[in-house]
Amino acid sequence: MAAEIRGRLKIQVSSFRERHGFPPTLAVVLIGADAPSAVYLNQIVRSCRSTGVSGQVIEIGPRVTTALIQRRIEELNMDPMVSGIIVQMPLPSRIPLRAVIEAIDPGKDVDGLHPANAGLLTLGYEGFLPATAHATVEILKRSGYALEGLDAVVIGRSNVVGRPASLLLQREHCTVTMCHRRTRDLPGHVRRADLVVVAAGAPGLVTGAMLRPGALVVDVGINVVDGRIVGDVDFESARLVAAAITPVPGGVGPLTNAILLEHLLAAARAQHEDAGQGAHAPGTGRPRARATSAA
Ligand code: ADP
After folding, report:
1. Percentage of the chain surpassing pLDDT 70?
2. Would you say the pTM of this structure is higher than 0.85?
3. CATH classification at residue 233
4. Do residues 244 and 257 both lie within one domain?
5. Domains in the chain, number
6. Whose CA is nearest to atom 24 of ligand 1?
7. How far is CA 50 from the centre of its chain?
Protein backbone atom coordinates (compact mmCIF):
# COMPACT_ATOMS: atom_id res chain seq x y z
CA MET A 1 0.00 0.00 0.00
CA ALA A 2 2.82 2.37 0.89
CA ALA A 3 4.59 1.59 -2.36
CA GLU A 4 1.42 2.26 -4.31
CA ILE A 5 0.95 5.65 -2.62
CA ARG A 6 4.61 6.53 -3.12
CA GLY A 7 4.42 5.55 -6.79
CA ARG A 8 1.49 7.89 -7.39
CA LEU A 9 3.07 10.62 -5.29
CA LYS A 10 6.26 10.49 -7.30
CA ILE A 11 4.35 11.45 -10.43
CA GLN A 12 2.32 14.15 -8.67
CA VAL A 13 5.40 15.58 -6.97
CA SER A 14 7.26 15.78 -10.25
CA SER A 15 4.38 17.59 -11.93
CA PHE A 16 4.16 19.99 -8.97
CA ARG A 17 7.85 20.62 -9.41
CA GLU A 18 7.40 21.32 -13.10
CA ARG A 19 4.61 23.79 -12.43
CA HIS A 20 6.37 25.66 -9.63
CA GLY A 21 10.08 25.11 -10.10
CA PHE A 22 10.59 23.57 -6.65
CA PRO A 23 9.43 20.37 -4.94
CA PRO A 24 7.10 20.22 -1.94
CA THR A 25 9.38 20.50 1.08
CA LEU A 26 8.99 18.90 4.48
CA ALA A 27 10.74 20.57 7.39
CA VAL A 28 11.47 18.18 10.23
CA VAL A 29 12.28 19.95 13.46
CA LEU A 30 14.48 17.88 15.74
CA ILE A 31 14.95 19.16 19.25
CA GLY A 32 17.73 17.44 21.22
CA ALA A 33 18.48 14.22 19.32
CA ASP A 34 17.41 10.94 20.92
CA ALA A 35 17.55 7.39 19.59
CA PRO A 36 13.94 6.41 18.70
CA SER A 37 13.23 9.69 16.96
CA ALA A 38 16.48 9.36 14.99
CA VAL A 39 15.28 6.00 13.61
CA TYR A 40 11.96 7.52 12.62
CA LEU A 41 13.73 10.49 11.11
CA ASN A 42 15.88 8.33 8.85
CA GLN A 43 12.76 6.59 7.59
CA ILE A 44 11.10 9.90 6.78
CA VAL A 45 14.14 11.24 4.98
CA ARG A 46 14.38 8.01 2.92
CA SER A 47 10.71 8.16 2.12
CA CYS A 48 11.05 11.83 1.02
CA ARG A 49 13.90 10.95 -1.27
CA SER A 50 12.02 8.08 -2.92
CA THR A 51 9.14 10.38 -3.92
CA GLY A 52 11.14 13.44 -5.00
CA VAL A 53 10.00 15.48 -2.02
CA SER A 54 12.63 17.64 -0.42
CA GLY A 55 13.27 16.91 3.25
CA GLN A 56 14.93 19.49 5.43
CA VAL A 57 16.06 18.59 8.93
CA ILE A 58 16.28 21.49 11.36
CA GLU A 59 18.34 20.44 14.33
CA ILE A 60 17.91 22.47 17.45
CA GLY A 61 20.27 21.78 20.35
CA PRO A 62 18.94 20.29 23.60
CA ARG A 63 19.65 23.44 25.64
CA VAL A 64 17.61 25.86 23.61
CA THR A 65 14.67 27.92 25.00
CA THR A 66 11.03 27.47 24.03
CA ALA A 67 10.96 31.03 22.66
CA LEU A 68 13.82 30.26 20.31
CA ILE A 69 12.12 27.10 19.05
CA GLN A 70 8.97 29.13 18.40
CA ARG A 71 10.97 31.72 16.50
CA ARG A 72 12.59 29.02 14.38
CA ILE A 73 9.16 27.53 13.57
CA GLU A 74 7.85 31.00 12.75
CA GLU A 75 10.63 31.34 10.16
CA LEU A 76 9.52 28.05 8.61
CA ASN A 77 5.92 29.29 8.58
CA MET A 78 7.05 32.33 6.59
CA ASP A 79 9.24 30.38 4.18
CA PRO A 80 7.25 29.86 0.95
CA MET A 81 9.46 26.91 -0.01
CA VAL A 82 8.50 24.99 3.14
CA SER A 83 5.15 23.27 2.60
CA GLY A 84 4.89 21.26 5.79
CA ILE A 85 6.41 21.21 9.26
CA ILE A 86 6.63 18.33 11.70
CA VAL A 87 8.27 18.28 15.10
CA GLN A 88 9.93 15.08 16.20
CA MET A 89 8.64 13.69 19.45
CA PRO A 90 9.27 13.14 22.25
CA LEU A 91 10.42 16.64 23.12
CA PRO A 92 12.87 17.14 25.98
CA SER A 93 10.70 17.15 29.12
CA ARG A 94 11.27 20.83 29.94
CA ILE A 95 9.89 22.00 26.57
CA PRO A 96 6.08 22.35 26.64
CA LEU A 97 4.65 20.45 23.66
CA ARG A 98 1.66 22.75 23.36
CA ALA A 99 3.78 25.88 22.95
CA VAL A 100 5.75 24.22 20.17
CA ILE A 101 2.77 22.72 18.30
CA GLU A 102 0.78 25.95 18.46
CA ALA A 103 3.65 27.80 16.82
CA ILE A 104 3.12 25.80 13.61
CA ASP A 105 0.94 27.39 10.92
CA PRO A 106 -2.15 25.09 10.79
CA GLY A 107 -1.85 25.10 6.99
CA LYS A 108 1.63 23.59 7.31
CA ASP A 109 0.74 21.24 10.16
CA VAL A 110 0.83 18.11 7.98
CA ASP A 111 0.77 15.80 11.01
CA GLY A 112 -2.47 17.33 12.26
CA LEU A 113 -1.43 18.13 15.80
CA HIS A 114 -2.30 21.82 15.95
CA PRO A 115 -5.50 22.47 17.97
CA ALA A 116 -7.10 23.96 14.82
CA ASN A 117 -6.68 20.67 12.93
CA ALA A 118 -7.58 18.56 15.98
CA GLY A 119 -10.74 20.67 16.33
CA LEU A 120 -11.65 20.18 12.67
CA LEU A 121 -11.30 16.43 13.08
CA THR A 122 -13.43 16.45 16.21
CA LEU A 123 -16.18 18.40 14.46
CA GLY A 124 -15.99 16.23 11.35
CA TYR A 125 -14.59 18.88 9.03
CA GLU A 126 -11.67 18.44 6.70
CA GLY A 127 -8.25 19.32 8.03
CA PHE A 128 -4.88 17.68 8.37
CA LEU A 129 -5.14 14.35 10.14
CA PRO A 130 -2.43 12.89 12.37
CA ALA A 131 -0.63 10.65 9.87
CA THR A 132 -0.43 7.58 12.14
CA ALA A 133 -4.13 7.65 12.99
CA HIS A 134 -4.94 8.23 9.31
CA ALA A 135 -2.78 5.24 8.33
CA THR A 136 -4.52 3.07 10.94
CA VAL A 137 -7.87 3.57 9.26
CA GLU A 138 -6.50 3.56 5.70
CA ILE A 139 -4.87 0.16 6.20
CA LEU A 140 -8.30 -1.27 7.04
CA LYS A 141 -10.16 0.50 4.25
CA ARG A 142 -7.57 -0.34 1.62
CA SER A 143 -7.71 -3.98 2.70
CA GLY A 144 -11.38 -3.88 1.83
CA TYR A 145 -12.90 -4.37 5.27
CA ALA A 146 -16.35 -2.90 5.83
CA LEU A 147 -16.05 -0.93 9.05
CA GLU A 148 -19.62 0.22 9.42
CA GLY A 149 -21.20 -0.98 12.64
CA LEU A 150 -18.12 -2.77 13.96
CA ASP A 151 -17.42 -2.78 17.68
CA ALA A 152 -13.98 -1.20 17.83
CA VAL A 153 -11.72 -0.98 20.84
CA VAL A 154 -8.92 1.57 20.77
CA ILE A 155 -6.27 1.06 23.45
CA GLY A 156 -4.44 4.31 24.23
CA ARG A 157 -5.84 7.84 24.26
CA SER A 158 -2.89 9.89 23.09
CA ASN A 159 -3.46 12.99 20.98
CA VAL A 160 -1.13 11.60 18.31
CA VAL A 161 -2.71 8.18 17.78
CA GLY A 162 -5.45 6.80 20.02
CA ARG A 163 -7.76 9.79 20.24
CA PRO A 164 -7.70 10.76 16.54
CA ALA A 165 -7.96 7.08 15.52
CA SER A 166 -11.11 6.75 17.63
CA LEU A 167 -12.63 9.82 15.97
CA LEU A 168 -11.80 8.50 12.50
CA LEU A 169 -13.32 5.12 13.32
CA GLN A 170 -16.48 6.88 14.47
CA ARG A 171 -16.49 8.66 11.14
CA GLU A 172 -16.43 5.18 9.56
CA HIS A 173 -19.48 4.33 11.69
CA CYS A 174 -17.76 2.04 14.18
CA THR A 175 -18.96 1.88 17.77
CA VAL A 176 -15.79 2.87 19.57
CA THR A 177 -14.66 2.06 23.10
CA MET A 178 -11.57 3.87 24.35
CA CYS A 179 -9.35 1.94 26.74
CA HIS A 180 -6.39 3.32 28.65
CA ARG A 181 -4.18 2.77 31.63
CA ARG A 182 -7.05 3.09 34.12
CA THR A 183 -9.44 0.83 32.23
CA ARG A 184 -10.74 -1.72 34.73
CA ASP A 185 -11.17 -4.77 32.52
CA LEU A 186 -9.08 -4.46 29.37
CA PRO A 187 -9.34 -8.17 28.42
CA GLY A 188 -13.14 -7.96 28.75
CA HIS A 189 -13.34 -5.05 26.30
CA VAL A 190 -10.90 -6.64 23.86
CA ARG A 191 -12.81 -9.93 23.88
CA ARG A 192 -15.98 -8.21 22.63
CA ALA A 193 -14.25 -6.24 19.86
CA ASP A 194 -14.51 -6.86 16.13
CA LEU A 195 -11.62 -4.46 15.65
CA VAL A 196 -8.76 -3.75 18.05
CA VAL A 197 -6.41 -0.80 17.55
CA VAL A 198 -3.50 -0.83 19.96
CA ALA A 199 -1.45 2.33 20.54
CA ALA A 200 -0.27 2.06 24.12
CA GLY A 201 3.49 1.64 23.94
CA ALA A 202 3.30 -1.58 25.98
CA PRO A 203 4.80 -4.70 24.39
CA GLY A 204 2.70 -7.84 24.74
CA LEU A 205 -0.32 -5.89 26.01
CA VAL A 206 -2.73 -7.79 23.74
CA THR A 207 -2.38 -11.55 23.26
CA GLY A 208 -4.19 -14.06 21.10
CA ALA A 209 -6.02 -15.43 24.17
CA MET A 210 -7.71 -12.05 24.69
CA LEU A 211 -9.01 -11.71 21.12
CA ARG A 212 -12.31 -12.72 19.71
CA PRO A 213 -11.74 -15.19 16.86
CA GLY A 214 -11.92 -13.35 13.55
CA ALA A 215 -11.08 -9.94 15.02
CA LEU A 216 -9.15 -7.35 13.02
CA VAL A 217 -6.03 -6.15 14.80
CA VAL A 218 -4.06 -3.00 14.01
CA ASP A 219 -0.88 -2.71 16.05
CA VAL A 220 0.45 0.84 16.25
CA GLY A 221 2.95 0.19 19.04
CA ILE A 222 6.66 0.61 18.46
CA ASN A 223 8.79 -0.73 21.28
CA VAL A 224 12.39 -1.80 21.47
CA VAL A 225 12.76 -5.09 23.36
CA ASP A 226 16.19 -6.76 23.51
CA GLY A 227 17.32 -4.62 20.60
CA ARG A 228 14.37 -5.69 18.42
CA ILE A 229 11.42 -3.55 17.35
CA VAL A 230 8.11 -5.07 18.46
CA GLY A 231 4.54 -3.82 18.64
CA ASP A 232 2.03 -3.83 21.50
CA VAL A 233 0.44 -7.10 20.33
CA ASP A 234 1.94 -10.53 20.80
CA PHE A 235 2.01 -11.24 17.09
CA GLU A 236 2.65 -14.98 17.20
CA SER A 237 -0.36 -15.81 19.40
CA ALA A 238 -2.61 -13.10 17.93
CA ARG A 239 -2.15 -14.13 14.31
CA LEU A 240 -3.65 -17.54 15.05
CA VAL A 241 -6.89 -15.99 16.30
CA ALA A 242 -7.26 -12.78 14.30
CA ALA A 243 -8.76 -12.59 10.82
CA ALA A 244 -6.08 -10.04 9.97
CA ILE A 245 -3.29 -8.36 11.86
CA THR A 246 -0.68 -5.73 11.00
CA PRO A 247 2.92 -6.65 11.81
CA VAL A 248 5.50 -4.48 13.56
CA PRO A 249 7.77 -3.48 11.95
CA GLY A 250 6.35 -3.22 8.44
CA GLY A 251 2.68 -2.52 9.16
CA VAL A 252 1.26 0.88 10.00
CA GLY A 253 4.72 2.53 10.06
CA PRO A 254 5.56 2.50 6.34
CA LEU A 255 2.01 3.52 5.45
CA THR A 256 2.24 6.42 7.91
CA ASN A 257 5.29 7.78 6.14
CA ALA A 258 3.63 7.58 2.74
CA ILE A 259 0.46 9.24 4.04
CA LEU A 260 2.44 12.02 5.67
CA LEU A 261 3.92 12.84 2.28
CA GLU A 262 0.45 12.78 0.77
CA HIS A 263 -0.55 15.40 3.34
CA LEU A 264 2.56 17.37 2.41
CA LEU A 265 1.62 17.44 -1.26
CA ALA A 266 -1.91 18.54 -0.34
CA ALA A 267 -0.42 21.36 1.75
CA ALA A 268 1.92 22.45 -1.05
CA ARG A 269 -0.97 22.52 -3.50
CA ALA A 270 -3.18 24.48 -1.15
CA GLN A 271 -0.43 27.01 -0.61
CA HIS A 272 0.55 27.46 -4.24
CA GLU A 273 -2.51 26.58 -6.24
CA ASP A 274 -6.07 27.67 -5.73
CA ALA A 275 -7.54 26.10 -2.62
CA GLY A 276 -9.76 23.16 -3.50
CA GLN A 277 -8.33 22.80 -7.00
CA GLY A 278 -5.92 19.96 -6.29
CA ALA A 279 -7.24 16.44 -6.80
CA HIS A 280 -6.39 14.88 -3.46
CA ALA A 281 -6.54 11.19 -2.80
CA PRO A 282 -9.73 10.22 -1.03
CA GLY A 283 -9.43 10.53 2.69
CA THR A 284 -6.40 12.74 2.52
CA GLY A 285 -6.46 15.58 4.98
CA ARG A 286 -6.62 18.97 3.41
CA PRO A 287 -5.90 22.30 5.01
CA ARG A 288 -9.01 24.32 5.72
CA ALA A 289 -7.82 27.26 3.68
CA ARG A 290 -4.92 28.60 1.73
CA ALA A 291 -2.04 28.42 4.11
CA THR A 292 -0.89 31.87 4.93
CA SER A 293 2.03 32.71 7.11
CA ALA A 294 0.89 33.99 10.45
CA ALA A 295 2.67 37.28 10.00
P1 ADP B 1 1.42 6.91 21.78
O2 ADP B 1 2.15 8.14 21.39
O3 ADP B 1 2.02 5.67 21.20
O4 ADP B 1 -0.04 6.96 21.52
P5 ADP B 1 1.46 7.66 24.63
O6 ADP B 1 2.57 7.27 25.55
O7 ADP B 1 1.25 9.08 24.30
O8 ADP B 1 1.64 6.71 23.35
O9 ADP B 1 0.10 7.14 25.23
C10 ADP B 1 -0.03 5.85 25.71
C11 ADP B 1 -1.49 5.56 25.91
O12 ADP B 1 -1.62 4.17 26.13
C13 ADP B 1 -2.11 6.25 27.13
O14 ADP B 1 -3.37 6.74 26.78
C15 ADP B 1 -2.23 5.14 28.16
O16 ADP B 1 -3.38 5.31 28.98
C17 ADP B 1 -2.35 3.89 27.30
N18 ADP B 1 -1.74 2.74 27.96
C19 ADP B 1 -0.44 2.57 28.27
N20 ADP B 1 -0.24 1.39 28.90
C21 ADP B 1 -1.44 0.79 28.98
C22 ADP B 1 -1.90 -0.43 29.51
N23 ADP B 1 -1.06 -1.28 30.11
N24 ADP B 1 -3.21 -0.72 29.42
C25 ADP B 1 -4.05 0.12 28.80
N26 ADP B 1 -3.69 1.30 28.26
C27 ADP B 1 -2.40 1.64 28.36
Report:
1. 91
2. yes
3. 3.40.50.720
4. no
5. 2
6. 181
7. 19
180 lines ligand 1 (CB under 6 A): yes
Q: Is 87 near ligand 1, meaning CB less than 6 Å away?
A: no
Task: Take atom 22 of ligand 1 and give the residue whose Cα is closest.
Answer: 181
Contacts of 228 (CB under 8 A, 6+ apart): none
Measure the CA–CA gap between 195 and 172, rounded to whole angstroms. Answer: 12
Contacts of 167 (CB under 8 A, 6+ apart): 121, 122, 133
Distance 182 CA to ligand 1 centre (A): 10
Assess whether the C-beta atom of 153 lies below 6 angstroms from ligand 1.
Answer: no
pLDDT per residue as tens digits for the range 135-182:
999 999 999 999 999 999 999 999 999 999 999 999 999 999 999 999
Q: What is the DSSP string of 29-42?
A: EEES--HHHHHHHH
Q: What is the mean pLDDT of residues 62-69?
A: 92
